[in-house]
């Protein structure tokens, strides 16, 4: 068995901030699984990570004598998995543009490898999904739900719906894991599969359109309007209207309000009646903040909503503009549309302005947030947040007057 190591290609990692502030690229969820879970399940291997130095305590690399380095931004396909498995020692596989996809080597690289490290390089021209920019996450989510659904459900029977009141369209495209509860909901899988994870809950009055993934122990609250191409990650609680969006895990949007073409990290909370715009009134393409250039860059897309980093919270009735990027551990609230970019560890809103979210207070709130779900907030988790603070606050400019004690 190969020793699977998923590496962060540096330019792609930067392009996927703020989500990669707190995780390797491969730990991003798209479809039903994270990219790491996709590769691990398809190669029958336990993945480890070659990532930024400050993330390595939580996401270490494990080396062996036969290492298979795989680009963490690449989603597996059957053809690509076969090509990767066929690699011989010191052979590499690249995309048409030269991006390294995979490398088999006995060497233990301290930094992400490049194709130049290989003795032999093979080009891969098969169709594949590479997550190169933030909008790629929601743009490819429907197809990734389909791919994960086919893999995870192959040869397995779905659990039955025991409640007499749900209405299912194309029930052959609906798969329900053990312990899931569905009450008086409408599930329409005519346009794509619907996956309901273990111990997930779909409450009364929900309307759900596939492709859709409700992961383990996630909940859709009463009257939820769940549009297609959406993933609700493990332990999330959602309500209102959600479309073409991804929740990574342990995040809440429990009340009414619209979220579209958006990606929400872990441990986030969107207050009641929080809404985002995902289409401009003049129908021009959306610009999105780039951490690589430090300015707004044209996505070339008409639809693009909110990108929210881990541990961020939005107050009730918060309004997010088209193409908004919010960093890690932000507390945003107040009237009016919020800025299109809010730096990590900010506290405030569009009207009163923003100040620095005091580090010790932010860490305390993060610890309490995690504890409420019965999860340990580890020393490694705290060290990651402290390093993000150092990079995003201390290394950028002198701190302004603190807003909170």
Chart the SSEs and their pairings.
Elements: E1 3-7, H1 10-15, H2 35-43, E2 48-50, E3 67-71, E4 74-75, H3 78-85, E5 91-94, E6 100-105, E7 120-123, E8 129-130, H4 135-139, H5 141-153, E9 167-169, E10 174-176, E11 181-182, E12 186-188, E13 194-196, E14 201-202, E15 207-209, E16 212-214, E17 219-220, E18 225-226, E19 230-232, E20 237-238, E21 241-243, E22 246-249, E23 252-253, E24 258-260, E25 263-266, E26 269-270, E27 275-276, E28 287-289, E29 296-298, E30 306-308, E31 313-314, E32 319-320, E33 324-326, E34 331-332, E35 337-338, E36 341-342, E37 346-349, E38 353-356, H6 359-372, H7 379-394
Parallel strand pairs: 1-2, 1-3, 5-7, 9-12, 10-13, 11-14, 12-15, 13-16, 14-17, 15-18, 16-19, 17-20, 18-21, 19-22, 20-23, 21-24, 22-25, 25-30, 26-31, 27-32, 30-33, 31-34, 32-35, 33-36, 34-37
Antiparallel strand pairs: 3-6, 4-8, 5-6, 28-29, 37-38
